Amino acid sequence: MTLTESSKHFVAVDMGSNSFHLVIAREQDGSIQILHKEKQLVQLADGLNDDNQLNDEAMQRGLACLRDFKQRFSDMPLPRVRLVATHTLRVAKNREKFIKAAYEILPYPIEVVSGHEEARLIYNGIVHSQVLAAKNLVIDIGGGSTEVVLGSRTQSTHLSSLRCGCVSYNQRFFADGKLTASAFKQAMTAADKQFASLSKEYFSGEWDLTLGSSGSVKAICEAMLQFHGDELITLPRLKQLRQQLINWGHIDNIALDNVEKKRTHLLAAGLAILTSFFRRLPITELHFATGALREGVLYELAGIEAYSDIRQRTVDSMAQLYHVDRPHAEKVRATAMTLFNAVAENWQLQHWKRTLEYAATLHEIGIHINSRAHHKHGAYVIANSDMPGFGEQQQLMLSLLIGNQRKKLDFERLEELDAPLQLAAQRLICLLRLAVLLNLGRISSRLAIANIVPQAQSLKLCFSEPRHRVSLFVKDLQREQKQMDSLSIALSFSFI
Question: Which Pfam families does the entry mention (predicted)?
Answer without folding.
Answer: Ppx-GppA, Ppx-GppA_III
